[in-house]
From TrEMBL:
Cofactor: binding details: Binds 1 Fe(2+) ion per subunit.
Coiled coil as UniProt keyword: no
Originating gene: tsaD
Binding site for Fe cation: H116, H120, D310
Full protein name: tRNA N6-adenosine threonylcarbamoyltransferase
PANTHER family: TRNA N6-ADENOSINE THREONYLCARBAMOYLTRANSFERASE, TRNA N6-ADENOSINE THREONYLCARBAMOYLTRANSFERASE, MITOCHONDRIAL
Entry keyword set: Acyltransferase, Cytoplasm, Iron, Metal-binding, Transferase, tRNA processing
Length: 342
């Protein structure tokens, strides 16, 4: 039995999670503490790297203390430490990596530098148990939009598609700004869309032409189309129907994400799809994914929102998978890699 502590600091969430790896391979979540600096970034309309790094520095030790208390363990009981070493913001990642190294050295336990993206997939195993292999993961957040083929969470993950410009969450945040809604834009757009008409405006579905990359995404053209539509409306002195624009934009995002993900699952012959990342909380995205997966006979797994957004529990879970798989720990030279590939 192993107790694994996970540290996450790749963006604006300082997360510390503690998970217990049982002899039968089950991973039990004992603590999941998160401190967010999102409020400090709100007035800038996006994450400010320097502000995020400082916030991590302030929050790291208190978040660690809360996690250990919540799990009702002693720091001395920890058997391994896992930390996000990329991808993400360089300064933010370095705070987590430095903290993890210090704790690993002080406790004399192995240190695992892990990739944030499989971490989002590992989060699902905390709620729904082991994943069938292979499976497909659709990761959608403010920083990433990826389709991953997962053969083994610990050792074999392949990126089969990604956004070529903005991440899906980034598009939500930018469109919210255009519509005068607060940051982060996902939740207010989701709310506004609930009373809007998703068919009011037909916004473009990026990269869906017959010659376009089958599994890649593009959202910057969609964002520009929304901006133009709103500008034209204002120029003509007409009111902007915020609810209809939000619903039509949201429909375009959900349509293209689910269409490509289901197509990938069918073409790869996988029977299970995991939907994770902050945007997985979107009601239309999860609803349409459920509908289209059911029609295609694909099992859809969506972790609860708390596990979808950035957290330390997912890093502890991925660390536990690495321990279980007998993967070698990282060397003491471990550093942060902002552009770490999957
Ligand atoms: O995973 P996450 O917490 O952090 C990143 O790694 O980026 O994702 C944050 C993103 C933000 O862009 C936010 O606007 C979006 O997730 N988001 C949503 C919803 N809730 C959060 N997007 C659409 N609908 C939502 N309900
Ligand atoms: Zn993330």
């Amino acid at each position: 039995m192993s107790l694994v502590l996970g540290i996450e600091s790749s963006c604006d969430e300082t997360g510390v999670g503690i998970a217990r790896l049982h002899p039968d391979g089950r991973i039990e979540l004992l603590a999941d503490e998160v401190a967010s600096s999102v409020d400090q970034h709100a007035r800038f309309g996006g994450v400010v790297p320097e502000v995020a790094s400082r916030a991590h520095l302030e929050a790291m030790v208190p978040t660690m203390r809360r996690a250990v208390e919540k799990a009702e363990v002693d720091l001395g009981d920890i058997d391994a430490i896992a930390v996000t070493c990329g991808p993400g913001l360089a300064g933010a990642l370095l705070v987590g990596v430095s903290a993890a190294k210090a704790y690993a050295a002080a406790l004399n336990v192995p240190l695992y530098g892990v990739n944030h993206l499989p971490g989002h997939v590992a989060a699902d195993t905390l709620q729904h148990g082991a994943l069938p292999a292979p499976c497909l993961a659709l990761l959608v957040s403010g920083g990433h939009t990826q389709l991953l083929r997962v053969d083994d969470l610990a050792t074999k993950i392949t990126e089969i598609g990604s956004t070529i410009d903005d991440a899906a969450g980034e598009a939500y945040d930018k469109v919210a700004r255009i519509l005068g809604l607060p940051y982060p834009g996902g939740p207010p757009i989701d709310r506004a869309a609930s009373t809007g008409d998703p068919e009011a405006i037909r916004f473009p579905r990026g990269l869906t032409g017959p010659r376009d990359a089958r599994y890649d995404f593009s959202f910057s053209g969609l964002k520009t189309a929304v901006a133009r539509w709103v500008e034209n409306r204002e120029r003509d002195g007409l009111e902007v129907p915020v609810e209809d624009v939000a619903a039509s934009f949201q429909e375009a995002v959900a349509d293209v994400l689910t269409m490509k993900a289901v197509r990938a699952a069918e073409e790869l012959g996988v029977g299970t799809m995991v939907l994770s990342g902050g945007v997985a909380a979107n009601s239309r995205l999860s609803g349409l994914a459920a509908e289209r997966c059911a029609a295609a006979g694909i099992e859809l797994r969506v972790p609860r929102p708390r596990l979808c957004t950035d957290n330390g529990a997912m890093i502890a879970a991925l660390g536990a998978h690495l321990v279980a798989a007998g993967v070698h720990p990282s060397a003491v030279e471990l550093s942060a890699d902002p552009a770490l590939p999957v």
